[in-house]
């Protein structure tokens, strides 16, 4: 909730209601501690001024449901499962219930789901990534439903998030891959236009290439949708046509295990002929054979912290504070050194 | 909704409201087509008699939200993901939204989630398996929220479901395993006390053993929770202590891929020394190495049909019809023949 952008201000409400700003603030954050008459005056001023109610006004106006909505791009392949499980467990400790909606990575479905959860009375929402139509953020502010962004962290954005820097995480992995002698690089990515995490991961590879003096035009890019079969198809295209890469970055582990499977089916040795790295470190990464080298994401910690921040906000009105979590490369068996170059 | 168990009857309501039973039925199923005055009379009779409102009464009393709740045991490992995705896609075609809650396989959490979804206005619920406290079914009837059971089919139960016969499915697989010469059998199962699907799968193995003249006491049973690491631990216990099995049935693919991984780590050849079979045929089964022999479950069809049945019920009041879907064994690379017996 970027309160700075809201007009009129708290001061305007205080003046109109003939109370102090502290009283308005108390009304918003601790309505139970304010006399009925004062609350009514402040409510009226808020309504008359068209002051967009934020979470506090909502808390004053409506009974809390102790329900938090989580809107994730997919339930498939358990990409978000571990984080959500930690999120739900932490919510339960505080008497909150989680309801989940999934969007199939489609912005128009996300919008429907956000509206559904708001109209079903969710106290607050957990969202994945920053990128969505500004209208949605305005809708949430107008409805007084706070939303916390996770799975992303971008120091340049004012909107708070509890997540990690996708670009830096992939840059670190790409730097290590390049240090092992790889020059012919490829990237199997999700649609980077509607997915800020996928976009950031691509930028991270490019950052590392530029630092190493490589030409960005030499990165072969395949954009597809997240899926095991999609990763397999992309791998096949990369190794059977054009200049064959020695290392393939996959934008997530799901694409990577699909790529790995197809390499095995084609008799392409991993990492002997081609190295494959993933992103996320979900359980698939360890089930894959050979076990997948990937970027570890602290799913459980992210889920727990997001839950605490949302509970705290709903209960006390304390605004979110952004938290950047660390990620790191996990070296298993699919990344090798280039020796014959 | 087992309407037979409800008292008073539709006839009692008709008599009290001085209308025909057809009119009461029309009020319940197509409230929009009944005059306001008639609707009021019938409503009053329903209330005065304490006629437990079923879905129809609810449709008459409250605006539909076009939200269907799905309550699943876990989001982990995508066990339910493919079925839910098909369920959601089909719901969307009819203008309905899905909200999901997960229970961590714990009955007390399921009860919380059911209450949360009902109080958030879900028109109907999708539930997994039949086994839950009768009080929950009574609560749903009293609230007028219909619930459809999936992932299970039991011809002996009056409650409708759209699913498959877990017992027969595992019996078929066990019969094939025994035909390949396996006599020293083991089963890695979930807790069979609170999970009717797990219980049915165990019974299916026992059915096949009895048909083949085997002694049920010779089945080594490990009960654990569904998880990759749990499957790995169970496999290790089975191959390092006691009489070593030649075939291990896993109650789902998640346990099976964990067992497979630990076998590889211990240098136990699959299927050379021990065969491993799963259940569900989720994507993990194909990612595993060797690819997993398992029982195929028609996740997508189950999800689509469940969605159509629920939409139909909410829109027209048409009661559910039970549907039994087929399953079949999928033979990949983890089941071998016993030759040295």
Notes on the structure:
The structure is a homodimer of 341-residue chains. Chain A has 341 residues and is α/β, with parallel strands linked by helices. Chain A folds into three domains: 3-61, 434 Repressor (Amino-terminal Domain); 67-164 and 300-326, Rossmann fold (3-Layer(aba) Sandwich); 166-297, Rossmann fold (3-Layer(aba) Sandwich). Helices cover 45% and strands 15% of the residues of chain A. Chain A is built from 13 helices and twelve strands. Chain A has helices spanning 10-17, 21-29, 36-49, 55-61, 81-93, 107-119, 134-143, 166-179, 196-211, 228-240, 253-266, 284-287, 299-316, and strands at 67-72, 97-102, 124-128, 147-150, 161-163, 185-190, 220-224, 247-250, 275-277, 294-296, 323-324, 328-330. In chain A, the strands form three sheets. The first copy, chain A, has a six-stranded parallel sheet, with helices on both faces. In chain A, strand 3, helix 7 and strand 4 (147-150) form a beta-alpha-beta unit. In chain A, helix 2 crosses helix 4 (55-61) and helix 8 (166-179) runs parallel beside helix 9 (196-211). The radius of gyration of chain A is 23 Å and the shape is elongated. Mean pLDDT of chain A is 90; it is low at 1-6 and 53-61. Chain A binds chain B through residues 65, 67, 69, 74-78, 80-82, 84-85, 88-89, 92, 97-102, 104, 109, 112-113, 116-117, 119-121, 228, 257, 261, 264, 283-284, 286-289, and chain B through 65, 67, 69, 74-78, 80-82, 84-85, 88-89, 92, 97-102, 104, 109, 112-113, 116-117, 119-121, 228, 257, 261, 264, 283-284, 286-289. Chains A, B: Keywords: DNA-binding, Transcription, Transcription regulation. Chains A, B: It comes from Jannaschia faecimaris. Chains A, B: Residues 8-62 form the HTH lacI-type domain. Chains A, B: This is Transcriptional regulator, LacI family. Chains A, B: GO terms for molecular function: DNA-binding transcription factor activity; transcription cis-regulatory region binding.
């Amino acid at each position: 909730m970027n309160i700075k952008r809201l007009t009129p201000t708290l001061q305007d409400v205080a003046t109109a209601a003939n109370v102090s700003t502290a009283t308005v603030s108390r009304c918003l954050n601790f309505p139970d501690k304010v006399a009925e008459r004062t609350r009514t005056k402040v409510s009226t001023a808020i309504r008359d001024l068209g002051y967009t109610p934020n979470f506090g006004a909502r808390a004053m106006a409506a009974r809390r449901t102790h329900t938090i909505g989580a809107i994730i791009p997919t339930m498939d392949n358990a990409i978000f499962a571990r984080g959500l499980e930690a999120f739900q467990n932490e919510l339960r400790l505080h008497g909150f219930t989680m309801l989940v909606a999934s969007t199939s990575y489609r912005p128009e479905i996300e919008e429907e789901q956000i509206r559904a959860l708001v109209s079903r009375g969710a106290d607050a929402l957990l969202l994945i990534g920053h990128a969505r139509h500004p209208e949605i953020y305005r809708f949430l502010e107008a409805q007084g439903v706070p939303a916390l962004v996770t799975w992303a962290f971008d120091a340049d954005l004012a909107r708070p998030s509890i997540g990690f820097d996708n670009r830096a995480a992939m840059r670190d992995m790409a730097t290590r891959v390049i240090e092992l002698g790889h020059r012919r690089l490829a990237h199997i990515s999700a649609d980077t236009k509607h997915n800020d995490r996928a976009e950031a991961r691509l930028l991270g590879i490019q950052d590392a290439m530029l630092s190493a003096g490589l030409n960005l035009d030499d990165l072969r890019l395949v954009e597809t949708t997240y899926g095991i079969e999609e990763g397999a198809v992309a791998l096949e295209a990369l190794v059977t046509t054009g200049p064959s890469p020695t290392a393939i970055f996959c934008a997530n582990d799901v694409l990577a295990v699909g790529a790995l499977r197809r390499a095995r089916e084609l008799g392409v040795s991993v990492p002997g002929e081609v190295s494959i790295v993933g992103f996320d470190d979900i359980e698939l990464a360890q089930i894959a054979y050979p076990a997948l080298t990937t970027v570890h994401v602290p799913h459980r910690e992210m889920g727990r912290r997001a839950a605490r921040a949302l509970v705290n906000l709903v209960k006390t009105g304390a605004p979110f504070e952004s938290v950047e979590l660390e990620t790191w490369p996990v070296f298993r068996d699919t990344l090798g050194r280039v020796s014959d170059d």
